[in-house]
Amino acid sequence: MGLATVYGIVKQNNGFVNVYSEPGKGATFKIYFPKTRETAKAKGAPVSGTIARGTETVLLVEDEEAILSLGKSVLERFGYTVLAARTPTEAIAMTEHYEGPIPLLITDVVMPEMNGNELRERIQGLKPNIKVLFMSGYTTNVIMHRGILESDVHFLQKPFSVNSLAGKVREVLDG
User: Fold this and answer.
1) What is the CATH number of the domain that holds 86?
2) Is 42 within the bounds of a domain?
3) Whether residue 130 sits in one domain with residue 170
4) Label partner for 133 (CA 20 to 30 A): which of 28, 48, 55, 120?
5) Are 108 and 62 in contact (CB under 8 A)?
6) Which run of H or E residues covers position 39?
7) What is the mean pLDDT of residues 153-161?
8) In this prediction, what percent of the chain has a pLDDT beyond 70?
9) How many CA atoms lie less than 13 Å away from 134 in the CB half-sphere?
10) pLDDT in tens, 20-48
């Protein structure tokens, strides 16, 4: 998990991160959360017996290798053909050279080279009918406040479950 993802999760929960660093000795990261007396309750969607499947081609763009690899394997397991790219430039090149339809772009929002919204504009210039699912470790409020995304977009909060990813992909494709 990248530092931006960790930071986003910590900030969402009213916490903060302190970094202690000394040249030649390394860095220590300390994460602090507010104290609570409440008992934690399980959150999240219940595990469904049926996970949405598909056969469409999906362009997945994520600069964190672990998330890209996991997303690709999960989507392929559910029947999708996945074009996986680590950078926006690679995604654009794949789109230019791929002759078949690409019904869905799944992209991280914060990446090197350009943000997810800029990538969406470039990809939609090549494939005008492509639908888009944005994902990020930052909340939608933070991303919209920074002007990166508009309010009426499909969004998946990281970290996400297999069911959440599969369900959201199917929802966007069918919508």
Assistant:
1) 3.40.50.2300
2) no
3) yes
4) 48
5) yes
6) none
7) 87
8) 87
9) 25
10) 777 887 888 888 888 877 766 555 444 45
Q: What is the pTM of this model?
A: 0.71
Gyration radius (Cα) of the chain, Å: 18
- Which ranges in 26-108 belong to alpha helices (H)? 65-77, 88-97
Is residue 125 domain-resident?
A: yes
Distances (CA, A) of 60 to 43, 86, 88, 91: 27, 8, 10, 8
For residues 78 and 52, the answer to whether their CB atoms sit within 8 Å is yes
What is the domain extent for residue 88? 57-174
Tell me if 61 is assigned to some domain.
yes
123: tokens are: 């990809």
| pLDDT over 70 (residue 1) | no
Residue 123 within any structural domain of the chain:
yes
Structural domain tally of the chain? 2
- pLDDT for 49 equals 58
